[in-house]
Specification:
The chain has about 190 residues and is mainly α. It contains nine helices and no strands.
């Protein structure tokens, strides 16, 4: 295996030849780890990224194309993308923890802790929950990705492999449904 090129090893990996993956790991595992540790600043998280990268190599359907560039650059692109995904997930988890409506009532000595404000927040949360029931699964996922996870419309289109026009149209329809179900109750 050691005499084979990276491209040859990757072709074998796509045929599910385990020793080829092990050889790639031996060649590049430390390099991927050093990139991940610099980005994540945490040994455990860096190890998760290394595992994710080599799992991606094992499961990829497209594989490495020698004509498009160097294997190491391709591997770094995969590592970078997976690292960005992990960082976004961490950020989303932090935001969701701080934005958790159940925690709003726990903020001490805030003008927002006035009983009227607490009841008002609960009513708004219930209205939003009711409005969400009128959305399809893809509309809910779009709202989550765009407003809570921070993805752009272009990124969402790329992730879903759909035209950006379809995503924009879905967003327009989603907001229209929400507006129709929230506005009458908010006006009362």
């Amino acid at each position: 295996m050691q005499s084979k090129s990276d491209a040859e090893l990757m072709r074998l990996v796509m045929q599910k030849h385990r020793p080829a993956l092990e050889e790639l790991y031996d060649r590049y595992g430390k390099l991927v780890y050093s990139f991940a540790i610099k980005s994540m600043k945490d040994d455990g998280k860096a190890r998760v990224i290394v595992q994710s990268v080599f799992t991606r190599l094992w499961t990829t359907q497209t594989g490495f194309d020698e004509e498009k560039g160097n294997f190491v650059n391709w591997l770094f692109m995969i590592t970078r993308n997976i690292t960005i995904d992990h960082l976004r997930k961490e950020k989303r988890d932090r935001v969701m923890t701080t934005m958790n409506p159940e925690r709003w009532e726990q903020i001490p000595d805030s003008p927002g802790n006035h009983p009227y404000a607490v009841v008002s927040r609960r009513m708004i949360r219930e209205q939003i929950t009711q409005a969400y029931r009128h959305l399809s699964e893809s509309q809910i996922e779009l709202i989550q990705s765009l407003y809570w996870e921070g993805y752009s419309l272009r990124e969402i289109a790329r992730m879903r492999e759909e035209p950006i026009g379809t995503i924009k149209s879905r967003l327009h329809q989603t907001l229209k449904v929400l507006r129709n179900h929230l506005t009458p109750e908010m006006e009362e």
